Amino acid sequence: MREFPQDFLWGASLSAHQSEGAYDLDGKGLSVQDTRPRDKHDICDFKVASDHYHHYKEDIALLAEMGLKVFRFSIAWTRIFPDGTRKVNQVGVDHYNDVINTCLQHGIQPIITLYHFDLPQTLEDLGGWSSKETVQAYEQYCRFVFKEYGDRVKYWLTINEPNIMLLVDKKILGKEIPLKAKYQQFHHLMIAEKLAIKACHELIDGGKIGPTPNISIVYPATSKPKDNQAALYFNSIRNWLYLDFSVRGIYNPVAKDYLVRQGVMPEVSEADKALMKEHIPDFVAVNYYSSVTVEFPENADDMMNGISDQQSEDIMERGFYKGFTNPFLEKNEFNWTIDPLGLQNTLQHIDDRYQIPMIITENGLGAYDVLTDSGRIHDPYRIDYLQKHLQACKDAIAAGVKLIGYSPWSAIDLVSVHEGISKRYGFIYIDRDEQDVRELKRYRKDSFYWYQQVIDTNGSE
Ligand code: BGP
């Protein structure tokens, strides 16, 4: 059967700090995203972003017009707890109540990410994810949010891309974390995730929760056994370390070998071990953009050789693998490989490892879109990308994968992590550029009408 199930969750995604703006309004505290310097000077910060904070009613109405069944957004932790813990900001709580209710009035189910790169700055100042206090604060925040919104929200995501957040630390967090500290932070993040799963299952009747790693399947550059070994290590360090912890409650053995050899294996208490095993997610949310190819580094200092995945280029580990430009894959304008079959491979690989339902919570094409004088945005390149990836989803479903939904990145244009607002992903164009905010008027792109048709025909078009 090459069709999508009747109850397939058609969606679109965004995150709070990349879209909301209003970074210091109505009692919101600062997050590490508000304070970090942007690495390129000509790209905008997150202060205004797409001003979704003031435009959410209009935005959700447009998403409803497109036919969405689900809308993935994140809660800014610092709107609820400005200092990360203790004192609640009621204006922030009310804001998300309103966002949720607006979605429901339009027949859209929210899928809420609890934390998307925007740790409260106050917690960061106290040691961030290196400190167990942050784990406790996150649990307290999750419990509060579940009690507040759990009567209306069924789908939850724990932590967006802990693998990318830590492995690409400089680009996401604006600072480099020493390897030892990085993996202790990894352990704390993953324990925090377990506590969120536990709390969700305790507090929300019928609540479903899952991890949200960024998965890029890793190919070996050649059939040389050493290249295969390099791919085995990179797959384990980049992908399976995170999912094995979430779904199987273990440290992935290959990644563990790497951690031990580097002398950076985190401390794991007996209490942690019990927690790891017990709280298993209901589904895995997959963020997928491209695949990665690696070879064995003959020279121990070699790290990369034009690696084509911007999300992986900084996470080459000396001596274990080195980036390789795959000659069989096209790339987008930002040097990311385009590999729809890689998505099918990824979904089948996850299914093979874990036999768990999946939902795609990010997939999309960043591009320089042009607003024409007649107010149109012609983005056939995006339609082509999404069409091919949807075909890959269909093929994966036909091969037995339990894929319950597809929520591409992004619902509306927002500020890209790597490139500012010029790199656009949305179905809905926001009229602003890097420094000139203008009126932030919304325009439907060609891909908006295309996706509307996809949803209307349940993926047949
Ligand atoms: C993912 C993040 C998103 C989003 C996306 C695209 O890693 O979860 O927040 O930004 O990548 O990346 P970029 O914005 O750099 O193009």
UniProtKB/TrEMBL annotation:
Record Pfam families: Glyco_hydro_1 (PF00232)
This protein's GO CC annotations: cytosol
Alphabetical UniProt keywords: Glycosidase, Hydrolase
Xref: InterPro entries: GH (IPR017853), GH_1_N_CS (IPR033132), Glyco_hydro_1 (IPR001360), Glyco_hydro_1_AS (IPR018120)
Gene Ontology molecular functions: beta-glucosidase activity
Gene Ontology BP terms: carbohydrate catabolic process
Catalytic site: E362
Gene3D superfamilies: Glycosidases
Domain of life: Bacteria
SUPFAM superfamilies the record matches: (Trans)glycosidases (SSF51445)
Family: Belongs to the glycosyl hydrolase 1 family.
Designated name of the protein: Glycoside hydrolase family 1 protein
Species of provenance: Culicoidibacter larvae
